[in-house]
Amino acid sequence: MRVIVLLLILLICSPPVHGWDRRHPVTPYGDFCPRCSKYGVCRFMLSPSQTRKALEDYYARKGLRIRIDRFEGRFVKARILDGNRVVDEIIFDRRTGRIRSIF
Questions:
Q1: Rounded Cα distance, 103 and 95, in Å
Q2: Residues 6 or more apart from 19 whose CB is under 8 A from it?
Q3: Which residues pair with 80 in a beta bridge?
Q4: Angle at 98 between CA 94 and CA 102, to 5 degrees
Q5: Over the Cα atoms of the chain, what is R_g?
Q6: Which of 21, 98, 33 shows the shortest CA–CA distance to 59?
Q7: Number of CB atoms found within 10 A of residue 56's CB
Q8: Distances (CA, A) of 9 to 1, 17, 40, 88
Q9: 12-40 burial, b if ≥16 CB within 10 A, otherwise e?
Q10: How far is 99 from 94, CA to CA, in rounded Å?
């Protein structure tokens, strides 16, 4: 009986501990390019060089680098790197400024 009471006290009074998968995406629920508004409106569609600069600036604040895989119409597919390790893959909409993780 004492063992059960002790286990219940430990269970109730212990601080919550959450494990986090190391493979979680850097942009799990999406985000917006700082050059566009949060409402999905850009004044103009970003050029490829503007897109590269915007993504580099955005992820540099997080200490990460980007590698753009391809431009396809208004969309850009890129990999987010921490050193040489891929930590996320994203789709960037150059018209709305929306960044979505596809990892």
A1: 22
A2: none
A3: 66, 88
A4: 105
A5: 20
A6: 33
A7: 14
A8: 12, 16, 50, 41
A9: eeeeeeeeeeeeebbbeeebbbebbeeee
A10: 9
Joined together, the tokens standing for residue 98 give 């929306």
pLDDT digits (tens, 9 = 90+) for 30-85: 777 777 776 666 778 888 998 899 899 989 988 999 999 999 999 999 999 999 99
HSE-CB at 100 with a 13 A cutoff on CA atoms is 9
In sequence order, what DSSP letters do the residues of 32-101 get, joined into one string? E-TTS-TTS--SSPPPHHHHHHHHHHHHHTTT-EEEEEEEETTEEEEEEEETTEEEEEEEEETTT-EEEE
The neighbouring-strand residues paired with 10 are none
pLDDT value for 19:
43
Coil, helix or strand at residue 31: strand
